[in-house]
Amino acid sequence: MDQLGGNIVQDLLKYNKETWCRAYFKDHSKCDVVENNMCETFNSWILAARHKSIITMLEEIRIKCMERMNSMREFSEKWVGEISPMAMEILGENAQRAAKCEVKFNGETGYEIQDGPYKHVVDFRAYTCTCRSWQLKGIPCAHAITAMHYKNYEVEPYVDHWYRKDTYLKAYSRFIQPLTSMNLWPTSTLPAMEPPVITAMPGRPKKKRTKAADEPKKKFGKEFNY
Fold first, then answer.
1. How far apart are the C-alpha atoms of 17 and 23, rounded to whole Å?
2. How many CB atoms lie within 10 A of CB 141?
3. Which residue of 72, 128, 206, 213 has the fewest CB atoms within a 10 Å radius of its CB?
4. Do 119 and 74 meet the contact criterion of CB atoms below 8 Å apart?
């Protein structure tokens, strides 16, 4: 490992391992995501509204959420089955990988799955595999699918309820109600909200934003990842 790679490892190990290493993740949430793409996507989604006045900003976000929730309900009606398209895509990928695995059955509940140089144990009663992918995602891994095909079991019933249509629709079961324009709102008797007082900070104002320590360096207008 080169010096730069070693420094990255040392910097990473300063953080709590339980927050970024899948080996320490709990399996009750059925989510193995380790990035904040959801927050980044939402911030990008409301980017135009964020630069407007408070009420206008909130109104635009309300309308966007109202329309988005409706489109998500309509999207669920296009599902082929009761399992979400994303979960079905992962199942398809795992099924392709399962074709390369071998299974040994102990005659009771134990399934020993050979996956290349590795062996994993699948337990249908506990919905577990020693690779932990099934527990973390709630979607049968390639090893579990191998055992299911060996016993001629249907795979979809073993997908966790979080990926089913009825659970999906619970997230969009409430409706954001439409409103009239602001000039028709009742006049409030409360004091008007004023922006905070802007205090000039000492020193010359910065023209460039502060970069993160691990942000890629730029050279001649291009980014280089080291």
1. 9
2. 27
3. 213
4. no
Tokens of 108: 């009771």
Q: 78 near 71, Cβ under 8 Å?
A: no
Distance between CA atoms of 67 and 223, rounded to whole angstroms?
37
- What value does the CA radius of gyration of the chain take, rounded to a whole number of Å? 25
Q: Where is 221: in which H helix or E strand?
A: none
Count each helix (H run) and each strand (E run) in the chain, helices first. 8, 6
* Whether 156 contacts 145, CB under 8 Å: no
Amino acid at 63: I
What one-character-per-residue DSSP string does 66-92 give? Answer: HHHHHHHHHHHTT-SSSB-HHHHHHHH
The CA dihedral of 123, 84, 24, 10, to the nearest 10 degrees, is: 140
> Which pLDDT belongs to residue 144?
94
Q: What is the pLDDT of residue 157?
A: 92
Could you say which DSSP state residue 14 is in?
T
Q: Give the tens place of pLDDT for each residue, 44-75.
A: 999 999 889 888 999 999 999 999 999 999 99
Reduced to 3 states (helix: H, G, I; strand: E, B; else coil), residue 218 is strand
Q: Which residues of the chain have pLDDT under 70?
A: 1-6, 212-226
CA distance 103 to 151: 10
DSSP helix/strand/coil, 119: strand
CA 54/CA 194 separation, integer angstroms: 11
Distance CA 75, CA 158 (A): 23
